Amino acid sequence: MTHTTVKALTFDVFGTVVDWRSTVITEGERLSADKGFEVDWPAFADAWRQAYIDQTRAIARGDQDWIIVDEMHRKALDQLLEEHRIDSLTKPEKEDFNRVWHRLDPWPDSVDGLVLLKERKIIAALSNGNMALLTNMAKNAGLPWDCILSAELAGTYKPDPRVYLKAAELLGLDPSEVMMVAAHAHDLRGAKAVGFRTAAISRPLEFGPGGQAEHLPDGEFDFVATDLVDLAKQLGY
User: Fold this and answer.
1) Residue ranges of the chain with pLDDT lower than 70?
2) Which domain holds residue 98?
């Protein structure tokens, strides 16, 4: 089987298509400057992201009741604000800051790469983010999805196999006709386990210049690309 049998590309979004960390840090620094308090925003962003990861994994394992990502982000934000003794934000300010995840900036190659890939394949977001979050993000960042397939539609979170199988079902495709594109090995392995093809995207700056890049083992995935434009080139665009 070659990549020419693939009819749709599904994309992880946080970290793969958008730069969550830099956006959160930038908006956080702006907020603290306006309100007159100091925070280690890189550490704050990392902790906020980790809380999301922990909750989605717990739900995927069946250890926690279902909630959407907006709700888990808000729950984590309230806890982090308390830990940092930040009590000067109004309720509307907290709600707006929680929606920073709706306003994440794309990586420099993302829009151009998606436009290229869309020329020959269906391109769809396949993210743990809820539908409203992903829709607002796409509008804000100019992400040209053909459709948005949130894990919300499966009632669980990646890497639960039901998320990938629901995506293939909704696209009317066999799993072998879908390629998962992600910067995270666990996501690619989850998709591969149900029959998806896989494309790993290197995002060494996801956790900042001093962060540890995701390890994407050689030979485990069908494609390994430096970014989305490189993936398009490898697919013959």
Assistant:
1) 1-3
2) 20-102
